[in-house]
Amino acid sequence: MLPTLELVYWPIRGRAYPVLLLLKAARVPFTYTEIPYDDEAHFAAKARGDIDPDEWPFSALPVLKVKGDEGEAVLAETGAILRYLERVVEEELAVDHVKQLNALDQARVDMLASAADFNSSALYHFAASPTWLEGDERADLERERILPFLRSLEHQLAQADPVRDAALRPRELKGGGVLFGAAACSIAYTLSMVCDLFPLSLAHPLAAASADVRGTLAERFPACAAVLRDVEGSPGFAEWVASGERKARWSNRRAFTPDKTRAAAERWDGRRGEGEKEERAR
């Protein structure tokens, strides 16, 4: 029997997004508790040590509150939450149980998840700059962070590897859901964020066609796009998106809002932005 689950987070996608990818695709019941965000109050409380370490381990969100046959716990850190959910959902709901990977194969799968998590965290740090999506900062972000990550991930995913491919594929569950493992959810999370940051040069594989798009993730990095398409296109997750419940914002950062990311993309990446790029190059 699945434990009772409560996911606690801010009113954004953020680091809870890969957890939501797993839970919604799997159609696992859980409670979502949204905490209002006050930047100054939160960091002041954190600095004073006023945040209850039992309620919020490591003074961070998301946390997953678990209550079941194995006991009660408050789990922090997205990677730990994902690995816990992958195991417990597999054990309780999988139609056909998969064989546990040996240590080396598991490390090779974890390597992909770790790379994705590192790069998503880096994007939040870049967003501390109010001009991170403009001009030279945007060019540096794309050239030095985004594209090297995508090229490396594409290289790994494009190699014929039955063991790793099986770990990234969905597993059929009782109740009509599918289980994507921690690695697949971490990868899809980071790729989804990248596509939202660069919607006209790395357009999402599930996005509607647009005349202003000059490049898509599927054209440039097809193996990456396949993982993102599989996870975000799963029926359970797609139904949740269609319901309108998915948050629009990725971050609490003031420079990382949907309107600002879209405006920057139209200015610098879209076909209408070519004139401005040429002007900058002179």
Features:
single chain, about 280 residues, alpha+beta, Glutathione S-transferase Yfyf (Class Pi), Chain A, domain 2, four-stranded mixed beta sheet, two-stranded antiparallel ribbon, globular, GST N-terminal domain-containing protein
Low-confidence stretches: 278-282
User: Average pLDDT value?
Assistant: 93
What's the SSE pattern?
EHEHEEHHHHEEHHHHHH
Sheet with the most strands, sense and barrel status: 4 strands, mixed
Pfam families: GST_N
Domain GST N-terminal: 3-93
GO molecular function: glutathione transferase activity
Biased composition (Basic and acidic residues): 256-282
Provide a descriptive summary of the structure in words.
The protein is α+β, with helices and mostly antiparallel strands. The protein has a single domain (4-281), classed as Glutathione S-transferase Yfyf (Class Pi), Chain A, domain 2. The protein has 12 helices and 6 strands. The longest helix is centred in the middle third of the chain and has 24 residues, at 103-126. It is globular, with a radius of gyration of 19 Å. Residues 278-282 have low confidence and may be disordered.
